[in-house]
Amino acid sequence: MSDNRQQFRLLTRHFFRGFLDNDLISPSSDLHGLLAKVAAVLVIPGLMYPFRLLFTYGRPFREYRQLDLLSWADKSTFVTLSLVVMGLLTALEWDALQLDRRDSLAFGALPIRSRTILWAKLAARVIVRNQVERGFFSFTVHTLVRSPWHRVVLAAFLGGALALAMVTLDFATVARDGVGSTPMVVSHALAMQFVVLVLVVAGVRAAAAAPAELRANWTLRLLDTGQPRRWMGGFRKAVVFAIVGPVVAAMAGAVWLQYGWHTAWTYALADLVFAVLTFDVLFLGFGRAPFACEFDGASGEAKLRWYVLAALFTIAVVGVAELVTLLLGSFRGSVSLAVASLGVIAWLRWRGNRAVSASGGLAFEHEEPGTQALGLGA
Amino acid sequence: MLEARALVKQFGGLRAVDQVTFSVGPSEVLGYLGPNGSGKTTTVNMLVGLIQPTAGQVHFGGQDIWQDIVAYRRRVGYVPEEPNLYPYLTGREYLQLVGRLRGLPEAALDRKIAALLGLFSLEPDSHSPLSSYSKGMRQKVLISAALVHNPDLLVFDEPMSGLDAASAVVFRHLIKGLARAGKVVLYSSHELETVERVADRVIVLHQGRMVAHDSVERLRELMRLESLEQIFSELVFTEDPQAVAGRIVDAVIS
Fold it and tell me: Which is higher by pLDDT, A83 or A200?
């Protein structure tokens, strides 16, 4: 018994140490600087926010209803910030929670596998029939799930998605019903989901623009056998299956609890179509081999038009969601919506394929004005 | 047959490779020798189609490789000098990525991967991430990846770096076996002993230029020297290597 307790203590200490001492926190790590910046960004609101709270709540003689109205945004901010911090920590520390090779050698060969990876492997066998597509499907899933840098990018965008969704919900609900009124209007729930999906797909785009491992890029360059549609097909399926699918499923669960299964599955279908449409819009003109471009586009690629489009989308999303909800209310409306959406997706994909064919395939180097590519293909 | 025709590669003001011309046919191993910085890896990068030459051409099967680089890549197996891989993939996943993107049928690919992992003693670690592999293990993964699609042309750039003594012996036999199977093999290295044992012909490169190109036996006869090491020293070093080593020792202990 005491032996068991000692083993338990030793193992707990071992894994706890692993949790604290991972590659990201090591001073020699590539991501050490990134972590320091993230920590700095997270500390700033913590220092500044109390002053803001003092001015808001420091005055006497507030009525409860006034305070409730005033505190709504602050509550949302704290919840969102907590979610973002937890998301980033989870993304950074995920590997430390798994057994590594040394652990396996020390504790026996344990068949530890990530459930996501297993699920993705099964899916790769079932839903991706072409070998080249299957190769890129698996590569995409592995990169998005395991690469620390890509996980951080996705977590940051997911945090942003939750924040923006909360803001959208706040404005929509407060504008229509006033603070504290329940239940939330169903179309507002759909608007929130659209906001989340746009940011998640935007996160995937930012992640795909960054190389999975710059020094290993030669592998994909040599494996480029002139099938860009297959590569992008595998990439698209992986994103829908491994990233969009779970997000839609989680949101469908929340909708089911509030509005019942019929609304849940109808909205889930609408979400999936919307996510694919968003993917084709955001990746139109991407033109690069995902995770294999020498230029790190994640930081240098933000263009003014993206900000303008994001602002317009945030303003219009509630109206779009209301229209979609209205159309989904009748059979004819649902069919019209499906046909129109699929038509737009087909058109976007045709344009994307034509652009890739015209440029002679996917690019492995990306040259922005004012930057210089490595020139290895010259 | 692989042919390099007057290859030149210029990086700014530096001419890394200058007028390199050779050919190597099926069932033949060509050793490509040179000291550090002589232009070996740059030549190899041009030969496998990772970079384009500033001047000159690379032909395979009588055709300029850049006329249909995609078709050429399907026929090439390449082991680079540095084992840079995707650290979060396991050895098996990396080989699956390579095989699938090359369009190999899944069942055949699985069989081949299992065989290669077993033969290279990587099976126990096949589900571990590549970041946990030693350099030698990563090198074995690279060699497996270069062979998985049964290429016609194999280009090895310092393939034995990190391999243990036993694996190195196996690898030497592997090169000879691949040549016997009709493959075109180019072996770039500065390990003279290995090149002497496996290569039918050798090229010695110095400061981007070819300074010798013949069989080891003929070079021995021509230069009246006993070993490839002596020939190499004669061609490449301007000073006596023993004297240079002596001066380094003096500098260290003084």
Answer: A200
Q: B184 with B146, same domain?
A: no
Domain enclosing residue B106, as ranges = 85-150
- Phi/psi for A273 (5° steps) reads -65, -40
Number of domains chain B contains: 2
> Nearest-CA residue of chain B relative to A146?
B88
Pair B128, B91: CB distance under 8 Å:
yes
Asked whether residue A126 falls in the same domain as residue A270, the answer is yes
B213 CB near a chain A CB, below 8 Å?
no
Residue B72: burial class (beta carbons within 10 Å; 0-12, 13-18, 19+): buried
Are residues B244 and B171 part of one domain? yes
Which tens digits make up the pLDDT trace of B126-173?
A: 989 999 999 999 999 999 999 999 999 999 998 888 888 888 888 989
Domain match, B62 and B184 both: yes
Judge whether B87 is closer than 8 Å to chain A, CB to CB: yes
Task: Flag if A216 and B101 touch (Cβ within 8 Å).
Answer: no
Q: Does B84 contact A at CB distance below 8 Å? A: yes
- Residues A197, A335: one domain? yes
Dig out the tokens for A323 from the structure: 């229209």
Give residue-wise pLDDT tens across range A130-141: 899 999 999 999
B-chain residue closest to A374, CA distance? B51
The pTM score is 0.77
- pLDDT, one tens digit per residue, over A274-312 is 999 999 998 988 888 899 877 554 444 556 667 777 778
A interface test, pick of B74, B82, B100, B128 with most A CB neighbours within 10 Å = B100
Structure tokens at A216: 């290993």
Domain for residue B223, yes or no? yes
**Residue B90 sits in the same domain as residue B210:** no
Q: Which of A136, A143, A215 sits opposite B101 (nearest CB)?
A: A136
3-state class of A26 per DSSP?
A: coil
- Domain containing residue A79: 1-112
CB within 8 Å of A342: residues ≥ 6 apart: A273
Q: Which of A230, A211, A208 is nearest to A137 (CA)?
A: A230
**pLDDT exceeds 50 at position A68:** yes
Residue A39 token pair: 């920590």
In this structure, are A246 and A335 located in the same domain?
yes
Do residue A138 and residue B96 have CB atoms under 8 angstroms apart? yes
Which chain B residue shows the shortest CA-CA distance from A99? B128
Q: What is the ipTM of this complex?
A: 0.84
Residues A120, A94 share a domain: no
